[in-house]
Design brief:
The chain has about 180 residues and is of the alpha+beta class. The chain is built from five helices and five strands; from the N terminus they run αααββαβββα. Strand 4 and strand 5 form a beta hairpin. Helix 1 packs antiparallel against helix 2 and helix 1 packs parallel to helix 3. The longest helix has 22 residues.
Length: about 180
């Protein structure tokens, strides 16, 4: 028996135990024996289910996954396609007047690079304050580093832009 079959057998034995009249104070009866057997099957089903922890419709054992979904009363989806859509990731490009400074996997690192470069090139780095304008979380929409010196705010030409990176070439994207 596999896990789902143990589960179904446990359900059947429990249901059958309810159909048996229990004698009053006469010791164990057939219903008790059925419940004990149901417990064994339920335990074996639990062991089988635990062994499949982490399984998904995308795993190699779709048939087993589908069997558990059926036993649990869920309508299982059809077997998924083996090829998933390419994953799109984002990186953040730090630049000064269009010249790339670096590419980072997070916004904070790209902004830190810009602020460090601006500080290194400032005449009086102790008197400056930084602020970012724009939203670098939107692809292609750069945010810009603003610099405040002695209460006067000015642009710096430092930008951070989110760039989407494809995992693989998609020929349909070119058409």
């Amino acid at each position: 028996m596999n896990g789902p079959e143990h589960f179904r057998e446990a359900e059947r034995l429990v249901a059958e135990s309810y159909t048996i009249l229990r004698p009053h104070d006469e010791g164990p009866c057939e219903a008790d024996r059925l419940l004990a057997a149901a417990q064994v099957h339920a335990t074996l089903a639990l062991v089988a289910a635990t062994a499949l922890r982490g399984e998904t419709p995308y795993s190699d054992s779709f048939g087993t996954y589908h069997s558990w979904q059926t036993v649990a009363g869920f309508e299982s989806a059809a077997q998924p396609e083996t090829e998933a859509a390419p994953v799109v990731a984002s990186v953040f490009k730090a630049a000064w007047t269009g010249t790339p400074l670096g590419t980072y996997t997070n916004l904070a690192a790209a902004q830190t690079h810009c602020m460090a470069d601006a500080t290194n090139n400032a005449e009086n780095p102790d008197a400056i304050a930084f602020e970012w304008s724009g939203d670098a979380h939107e692809p292609g929409d750069p945010c810009e580093l603003l610099l405040t010196v002695n209460g006067v705010q000015d642009t710096t030409d430092y930008t951070v832009t989110r760039v989407e990176v494809d995992a693989e070439y998609d020929p349909e994207a070119d058409s």
